[in-house]
Amino acid sequence: MASSAVNLLRPPVHQAMRTLDRSAFSRAVPISAARIADNKNISRIRRDLIKSKDALDLREVSPVQLDPEKSRASANGKCMLLRPEIRHDDTSTWTSTVRKYVDLEEIGVIPYTLNLDYNHWTYHDIMSSILPDHDQDELPSGFTAVGHVAHLNLREQYLPYKELIATVLMDKNARIKTVINKTDDVGQTSAYRTFNYELLAGDPDLNVTVQEGGCTFHFDYSKVYWNSRLETEHRRLIEKFQPGEAVCDVMAGVGPFAIPAGKKKVFVWANDLNPDSFNSLQDCIRRNKVGAQVRAFNQDGRSFIRESAQLLLKVSEDQPPSPSIAIQPPHDNNNSSRNHNNQNRDSTTNGQRRPTRGHRNLATTAAATKPSFRLPKTFSHYVMNLPDSATTFLDAFIGVYRGHERLFEPYTSVRLPMVHVHCFSTKSDDNAAERVKICREISGRIGVEITQDTPELTIFDVRDVAPKKRMFCASFRLPAEVAFR
Asked: Which of 260, 369, 406, 484 could form a disulfide with 411, with the two C-beta atoms 3.0–4.6 Å apart?
């Protein structure tokens, strides 16, 4: 499409605008249309004009419209909108397909006024017409959606347009009811990983409901930490947890690891220092009916690492014995007729239907084959999702299982837990230098050398968080010389 034709289909430019005026984005676009002589030919003509790329291809605008003449429109007369390069008053712009149908007298090429308004244009269209040319290289189009809240992190050059950006963003995203802009870094003014923000548009209520991992989370976004961009990382780690294992989620937030893992029949002890996160975590446990699997705590992470290991051992030893279910052998087929007659006689009492022996046996067998798990004595995994400082908590693992060596290999088949610790580092093309730095950081904290050759060590590249900053997850097996020291 020629540049002049493209400009016809763009919104009017209003680079001086600071307060949104939706009426300023109406435009009457002069184009041409193919008037259909007989509506029974519409499908064939439309197919051919689309194939020859003569039909107007414009988002949310159907190429088939009523005829612009009222008398024809009242008789359901139709026309086919043509791309702007085809002009009704210049036959040299007509393609062979258009000429063919004109010669057959199945269409006539007529003038048409296409009326577009604010509702037609996209967010990108509107902002491109408002922002100065020198600020359009990095148009602020990305945002984090948390329930009905859009969370922006605007660069300084866009702050003069922040309310306008927020209003257009909300207009063009039906599910967004609130737009906020972060005014400091996460955790900069709070140990709870919350951030200061300003309301730019919409409802000030930040109580949101989020769906993730087949679970429902409800929380006040202004009081707790949540990052929708970590959904893939949540899923990646949860896939490592097996039903019946125990997981210690040290910095759990509102439970994006814990709640879906609980749905998977994993026992999770989930902790967060923030009282609001703890309260929301308890609410999410109830909402998702995982109270039998997930237990919430409100402690400092360092003390929780040490105390939870001892508490889990005590609680697991205090468990009542698992219930046993006797399974009767299946009926002998040779006696099926007799059993059937007996069941018919025995299946009613005082006119009330009661389960037959056959049905009772099936129910008992189903109950017996349904997997059931006892709370383990030890954790299989520790999750430490506090990337800004989680590695500083690693020294809490020193001696965490001192005196309990016989719970683990070689005395049993139980292995020491895997530790999954998130952290920030610099970024490079191959992450080689970053992996070395992370290994050194872990080694210094636990007093045992961890290298890239350490068995079972993985350092996973989670996501970029800034132009020169990347989030990683280091996973390693807790060394015996650390756990038993």
From this structure: 406
Whether 63 and 52 have beta carbons less than 8 Å apart is answered as no
Instruction: Characterise 187 by phi-psi region: left (phi > 0), alpha (psi -120 to 50), beta (else).
Output: left
CA 263 to chain centre: 17
User: Do the beta carbons of residue 315 and residue 375 sit within 8 Å?
Assistant: yes
User: For all residues of the chain together, what is the average pLDDT?
Assistant: 88
Residue 455's pLDDT is what?
96
What is the pTM (predicted TM-score) of this model? 0.80
Q: Which helix (H) or strand (E) holds 111?
A: strand 107-116
Q: CB 165: neighbour CB atoms within 10 A? A: 28
Q: How far apart are CA 33 and CA 108, in angstroms?
A: 8
Instruction: State whether residue 374 is helix, strand or coil.
Output: coil
What lies within 8 Å, CB to CB, of 315 at 6+ separation is 375
Write out the E strands in 321-374: 348-349, 352-353
Report the distance separating Cα 269 and Cα 366, nearest Å. Answer: 29
Round to whole Å and give the CA distance between 355 and 363.
Answer: 10
Residue 372, pLDDT above cutoff 90: no
Supply the pLDDT for residue 367: 42
Structure tokens given for 133: 């040319």
> 197 has which bridge partners?
182
- Amino acid making up residue 65: Q
Bridge partners of residue 198, in order along the sequence = 181
**Least confidently predicted of 152-161, 181-190, 421-430:** 181-190
Residue 379 Cα distances to 306, 316, 324, 385, 409, angstroms: 12, 11, 26, 17, 14
Residue 207 has pLDDT above 50, yes or no: yes
Q: Is-contact 300 274, C-beta < 8 A?
A: no
Residues in the chain: 485
Contact 396, 302 (CB under 8 A): yes
Residue 292: how many CB atoms within 10 A of its CB? Answer: 11
Q: Give the helix/strand (H/E) hosting 320.
A: none
Split at pLDDT 50, 70, 90, the class of 8 is: confident
Note the pLDDT tens digit of each residue in 374-411: 999 999 999 999 999 999 999 999 999 999 999 999 99
Tokens representing residue 347 in the block: 């299946």
